[in-house]
Design goal:
heterodimer, A: 264 residues, OB fold (Dihydrolipoamide Acetyltransferase, E2P), 4 helices, B: alpha+beta, Rieske Iron-sulfur Protein, 11 helices, 14% strand
Chain lengths: 264, 343
């Protein structure tokens, strides 16, 4: 150790001047380093997107309920223009627990006009709603099968590259709502019944979203979990359901690119 | 030193030290949160909290790890060592806020237990790219919790200094886990040359200072006896030891400290009973050898802490031939009184 005549004892008040000077220098340097670290970590964060989750704010929407294959509400926005709002439950769950009561009293539910009050989630042209109370799902008019929108086949065997995300977090609840950091959460959300969505981004940074189903257009959850939150190449048949694409896939066709995920 | 256990044995230095920790933490959070709100206004409150406290914990962990080797290299840094516990506990609290908010945000409100989900929602433990980095952070937090929870002399005494020290040396394992947690998580998703650089520089500085301190320590242990007469080892001449101070020697692979005080010489073990501090780097104050780390005291003639304290260390026999000091390498039982050598 460097020899010096100073000797510090914590419970004795006096401190030798040179020791005091050394400690002052250390504290100043530590503060400068702390502030530099804070600035570097703060400035190097990727920009969070302008997605929204209206937590605590209830909005009432009315439209045609359908399950093609995930619970959605088709809401008319303008003449001949519709937005299909994905219905979700509280936390990392689907809307199904909150639809149980109305399903028991209204058969069939698909094609019915429902009024639903919940918290809106929206980003990049897509809207979802979180239902937190089954009493806020109200029947307006009974089912009319003719009103159920039908998916239209678009492209067969299309190959798409992107990341399978859970739409609840991606479209507003969390920022970032995709990538490696979010992966565990996305796995829990999809495992809990939230529909898996493939998010793709082209060279012009334009994103497209595909609700993923199995080859028969049925819901898919557990089988897809190993591929959630990772860059992948997916092959399937593309259908269009008004403002949403559907991608019907065989899970065994998913190719894990084994690349690090990046935010946004 | 304390006879009974209190939560904190406050003194003016500790109060001043804690005030500066609080100021540092406040300025860090103000800077990080302020810059984020101004440059990245869409960030959610949860993400802001997770990132602000996670990065604060990393910054404080680096400072905590610097204090040890700096104090070994220059005793003027010892006031930082004396009060290091409070900085360590502050660092743990920042890490706890980061960890708790992350577990709540990413792992609760699902169809399985949050802690079970932490370990099972990503099972690619055999992949570097996809490794579940959260698990590394969780284990680091457990280590930091154990350290913070036992960061008190009650635990030091009851666990025994050896076990306590071993537990607290786990901070290096926690540091390794934290680095891997960050490199396989945040920096993989959000690569930044600046962030990677400061963490790399931090590691290099910490590793270099530890190596330098270790090298200095190893020089002491390499000492060998120059001359042995009838089992007594020559160590130095009287004038080589400063008044009220000591010189450290190795006998039978043990470090001993020979003190010169009040025209007398006494030899005791160099290892303080409290946290293994180097008594030979201490000073005789009010007739007592005072440890440079936390001020524990021993009477040089018998290795006993002055009453009512009860700590005892081994003592060693000395003899003086002319101006030369000889030590008998066989230590006596802890607390054995030996008549000091008169000068």
């Amino acid at each position: 150790m460097k020899e010096n005549k100073d000797f510090y004892v914590g419970y004795i008040d006096s401190v030798a001047p040179k020791t005091k000077k050394t400690i002052k220098g250390f504290v100043l340097a530590a503060f400068a380093i702390l502030l530099a670290i804070a600035a570097i970590f703060a400035f190097t964060q990727n920009t969070a997107k302008n997605s929204y989750f209206e937590f605590g704010v209830d909005t009432k929407i009315t439209g045609i309920y359908h399950e093609l294959p995930y619970p959605m509400l088709q809401v008319k926005t303008e003449e001949n223009e519709y937005r299909n709002i994905v219905l979700l439950g509280f936390g990392k769950f689907s809307a199904n627990p909150y639809l149980k009561k109305i399903r028991n009293t209204t058969k069939p539910l698909s094609g019915s006009t429902l009024s639903i009050e919940g918290n809106l989630i929206y980003y990049n042209g897509k809207t979802l709603i979180q239902i937190t109370d089954e009493e806020k799902v109200v029947l307006v008019t009974p089912s009319d099968a003719a009103k159920i929108p039908q998916p239209i086949a678009m492209v067969q065997d299309m190959e798409l590259q992107g990341e399978i995300i859970d739409p609840k977090c991606y479209f507003g609840v969390m920022k970032p709502g995709k990538g490696k950091i979010h992966r565990s959460c996305a796995v829990l959300c999809i495992s809990g019944g939230i529909p898996p969505v493939l998010a793709t981004t082209d060279e012009n940074n334009i994103s497209k979203y595909y609700l993923i189903t199995d080859t028969n257009g049925a819901p898919i959850h557990q089988d897809i979990l190993p591929f959630v939150g990772k860059p992948s190449v997916i092959q399937g048949d593309v259908y269009q359901l008004q403002d949403w694409y559907q991608l019907r896939i065989d899970v065994s066709d998913i190719q894990d690119l084994n690349q690090p995920s990046t935010i946004y | 030193m304390g006879l009974d256990y209190q939560t904190v044995l406050w003194n003016s230095h500790k109060k001043k030290y804690d005030l500066w920790i609080a100021i540092g933490v406040f300025l860090y959070l103000l800077t990080f949160i302020g810059i984020t709100i101004l440059t990245n206004p869409e960030t959610t409150a949860e993400t802001l909290i997770i990132r602000a406290f996670g990065t604060l914990a990393i910054a404080l962990l680096h400072i905590v790890l610097l204090i040890g080797p700096l104090s070994r290299l220059n005793s003027r840094f010892l006031p930082l060592l004396y009060n290091r516990r409070h900085l360590g506990v502050s660092m743990f609290l920042a890490a706890l806020i980061h960890g708790a908010f992350s577990i709540i945000q990413f792992h609760t409100l699902g169809n399985t237990n949050a802690f079970y989900a932490l370990f099972t929602s990503n099972l690619e433990y055999d992949s570097l790219t996809n490794f579940p980095f959260q698990v590394l952070g969780f284990f680091a937090l457990i280590i930091l919790f154990l350290m913070a929870a036992t960061s008190h002399d009650f635990w030091l005494k009851n666990l025994s200094p050896k076990i306590w020290k071993g537990l607290h040396m786990m901070v290096y394992v926690a540091y390794a886990f934290v680095l891997l947690h960050v490199f396989l998580g945040a920096l993989q998703q959000q690569p930044s040359l600046w962030s990677i650089s400061i963490l790399s520089i931090g590691f290099i500085v910490i590793a270099s200072l530890h190596l330098k301190a270790a090298l200095q320590e190893s020089k002491i242990d390499k000492q060998t006896a120059i001359k042995v007469e009838d089992g007594w080892e020559f160590v130095c001449t009287v004038d080589e030891i400063p008044e009220d101070r000591a010189k450290i020697f190795i006998v039978q692979k043990e470090r001993i400290a020979i003190f010169k005080y009040e025209n007398k010489l006494s030899a005791i073990s160099n290892v303080c009973k409290h946290q293994g501090g180097p008594l030979g780097e201490g000073k005789v104050i009010d007739g007592c050898v005072t440890c440079p780390w936390h001020g524990y005291q021993y009477l040089p003639a018998n290795g006993q802490s002055p009453p009512p304290f009860t700590e005892k260390i081994a003592t060693y026999r000395l003899k003086k031939i002319a101006n030369e000091i000889y030590v008998h390498p066989e230590g006596l039982a802890e607390g054995t009184a030996i008549e000091p050598i008169a000068l």
